[in-house]
Amino acid sequence: MAKKSFDHITNSWLYRASKVVGDAVIISALFLLFCLPVVTIGASVSALYYTVYRKYYKKYDNISKDFIRAFKENLKNGIIVHLVYLIYSAIVGFNIYVAFNGWGNIRLPDWYILVSFLPLLPIIFTLPFVYALMARFKNTIRGTVKNSFTLCMMNFPKFILIWIIVILAIAISVGFPPAALVIPAIATYLCQFITEKAFSRAMDVESARENNDEVKTASSEENDSEENSDEDDPEEEINDEENDMENTDD
Fold this sequence. Notes:
Blueprint: H1 2-10, H2 13-35, H3 41-57, H4 63-73, H5 75-101, H6 111-115, H7 121-124, H8 127-136, H9 141-154, H10 159-175, H11 183-230, H12 234-249
């Protein structure tokens, strides 16, 4: 009776909903905790993405182990990428500030206000996929940023949805701080509907390209072999010369 009662509880919608919320709280809490040193935000975002992917897409229930492992694996690259974006964003922000307010007694022309926003484009067109790529694939920092830009171009304007989700998540968390205990996991889960489809599409394109290259290579090898077979055999040429010599002697 006790076992049946326990099974009845674990199979109830209330228990399942509580577990989903509890897992989201654990994931989000780990993310916030590992973001505290500030410089580790990049590695923490990558670990957040990897943990949510493993939990909700692969159905693995090792939240703490997955998060810590992903955090350690992406710590170095995550710190470097985050610092690059942080420093670059500070420079862009200062440039925009000067465009609006000038520098001392110097006032810039009005048209420079629009120009000052152009340096934001590298951030807009690379950041949505950078940490997701870092979490899912092993690559150099340069390769990760380059691939992120390519994915944004391949999925334009779908990647804008990622920005909308992230901005809404930050706004909700700032406006209602307790929501930060679930928002990071929920926002990441929603973003993965876009990123994982983009990864699958990119891998399909790459696979098709490799197959085409193999077919072309095989065709060129066949053509080379046919050309070689059409050439005169040296031994046959020697035999022909010998026959000519014999006819001459006769």
